[in-house]
Amino acid sequence: MKYHEEIHFPFTKYSLSIGTADDFSQIPEEPLVGFVGRSNSGKSSLLNAITNQKGLAKVSKSPGKTKLVNLFTTKQGFHLVDLPGFGYSKASHREHKSMMELLDRFLNQVQNLKVLFILIDAQREFPAEEVSMIETCQKKKIRPVVVRTKADKLNQREKIHIVRDAEEIMNHIGIPFPYFLCSSTNGKGINEIRKFIFDSLGISQVKQER
Ligand SMILES: Nc1nc2c(ncn2[C@@H]2O[C@H](COP(=O)(O)OP(=O)(O)OP(=O)(O)O)[C@@H](O)[C@H]2O)c(=O)[nH]1
Ligand SMILES: [Mg+2]
Question: Out of the domains of life, which is the source (predicted)?
Fold first, then answer.
């Protein structure tokens, strides 16, 4: 398969936001590619980087920006889904619980979620909730992918450590998962993620318009 050197999703458009599982029926039937992770892990930034559209998803220095399930529709017909950031310390207990419930129901009820990118800030340890999300994906036949974000903040030694970390988790839980180290700031790993999305969805012919 031949790809254009730079695979962009240049005409991706915001399509809808959902705040409650009762509204999941509004989600279109085409394949979904989700982005999940702790607040501030860089989900919205990654979405903007892979689409090459800076203002598409809202990025914020203060955690807790994305509270809804936000859908962005690509020209190729599938949807990128920016999911609410969890683990936000300033969120009230009730707010956090309802966000986790929304996420849980999204993973368990939405049938056309094909790939779930699980983002973890590269400077943090691999957290337990993310491990359990990988296990949920396996049960639901969703393809889990781990993305360690903000790679620009790591030195060489930390980069090596982080790869070992992923291998250890894989061995421990017995589920292999693809794994990327990326930076939305300097572009590292971004094109690999784009290619992975096309491969996973079986999109073989990528003709780019610029
Ligand atoms: N250095 C560096 N900073 C990044 C990178 N990606 C995101 N950030 C910064 O991290 C902060 C959070 O980024 P967001 O993309 O808003 O994170 P999020 O996961 O969508 O956060 P919520 O919407 O709160 O869940 C912002 O200040 C970004 O500029 C990266 O690759 N490198
Ligand atoms: Mg966000």
Answer: Bacteria
